[in-house]
Inverse folding.
């Protein structure tokens, strides 16, 4: 199997409003398995490819990490935005 | 016009507590923005805090009545201009800057530190605008934990006209996009501090403003301070987070009103 056909891990970080896969996505990061790839905040309008985590699963993404809910909960404090799901697609990238 | 002519309204203040920012388009003398831009273009090194010595025209910005009016409203009449300031020159071809907060996040309910971001020239989407995330100012989220976010629903790129002064809560999440244009992008950051607590509202407060009932039909379309503070949810966060945000806003508003004890204050 050469480098062109070797499946590589595409990563997708989705931050959903709640731990439910059906809740709306608030944060989005796509990481392509390409040398030198960098993530970049949009300076203009961003086209959201999915509305929910479930939409991404329907599109073939697999969830490899569900949100951690075991951390201490404060009823007064706020921390990060949303609940983080990490998804992958194993694909050959040309 | 005096500074007091430019004090914020109850609605402005409520929107600041919800969103964590307030944008002012300064009414400046003709040519001042261009003069400042040209001087910045000509600098060969970053003078750090001494940027106001290299470009003394910046004092016209810091001391502008629209800036002073907003700062008095948010930080009290005795607010101070911090000695720290910085020229952020984003060169053509430079990459983005990921989400961060300046310094550590010591979130409290008091508004005691603000950033003032001045843009001497028009900023377009391809020039590497500052991007802010409304409503994140009350989150205890260290910058490290923002590393897996790229785009956030509700983020606001500050693509603004020349002469804009954006006031943000010190803890508001912010970053920049890449500069894909062929021009230097200038932004001068100033820091402002509260020096004493309020004993009364320092903005153009109307006591009638707090007598409005909650309007469950208006919700996020609310136009009055009570309902903006109650229902504002710029990112569309979860119910749990939204309720906590509301409690924090309540405490912040009470402090700004000068109420020393919670039970003295009307609730919204």
């Amino acid at each position: 199997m050469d480098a062109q056909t070797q499946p590589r891990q595409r990563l997708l970080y989705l931050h959903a409003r709640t731990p439910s896969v059906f809740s709306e996505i608030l944060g989005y990061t796509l990481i392509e398995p390409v040398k030198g790839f960098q993530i970049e905040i949009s300076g203009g309008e961003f086209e959201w490819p999915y509305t929910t985590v479930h939409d991404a699963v329907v599109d073939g993404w697999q969830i490899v990490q569900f949100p951690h809910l075991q951390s201490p909960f404060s009823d007064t404090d706020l921390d990060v935005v949303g609940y983080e799901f990490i998804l992958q697609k194993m694909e050959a990238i040309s | 016009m005096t500074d007091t002519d430019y004090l914020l309204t109850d609605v402005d203040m409520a929107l600041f507590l919800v969103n964590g920012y307030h944008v002012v388009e300064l009414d400046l003398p003709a040519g001042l923005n261009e003069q400042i831009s040209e001087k910045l273009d000509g600098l060969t090194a970053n003078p750090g805090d001494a940027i106001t010595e290299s470009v003394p025209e910046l004092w016209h910005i810091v001391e502008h009545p629209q800036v002073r009016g907003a700062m008095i409203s948010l930080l009290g009449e005795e607010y101070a201009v911090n000695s720290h300031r910085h020229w952020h020159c984003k060169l053509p071809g430079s990459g983005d800057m990921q989400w961060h907060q300046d310094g550590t996040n010591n979130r409290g309910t008091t508004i005691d530190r603000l950033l003032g971001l001045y843009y001497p020239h028009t900023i377009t989407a391809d020039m590497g605008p500052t991007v802010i995330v409304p409503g994140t100012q009350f989150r205890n989220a260290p910058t490290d934990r923002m590393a897996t976010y790229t785009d956030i629903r509700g983020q606001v790129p500050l693509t603004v006209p020349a002469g804009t002064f954006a006031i943000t809560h010190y803890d508001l999440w912010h970053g920049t996009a890449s500069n894909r244009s062929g021009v230097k992008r200038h932004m001068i950051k100033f820091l402002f501090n509260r020096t004493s607590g309020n004993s009364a509202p320092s903005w153009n407060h109307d006591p009638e403003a707090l007598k409005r009932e909650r309007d469950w039909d208006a919700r996020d379309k609310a136009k009055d301070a009570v309902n903006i503070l109650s229902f504002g949810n710029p990112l569309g966060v979860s119910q749990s987070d939204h309720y906590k945000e509301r409690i924090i806003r309540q405490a912040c508003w009470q402090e700004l009103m000068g109420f020393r004890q919670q039970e003295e204050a009307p609730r919204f």
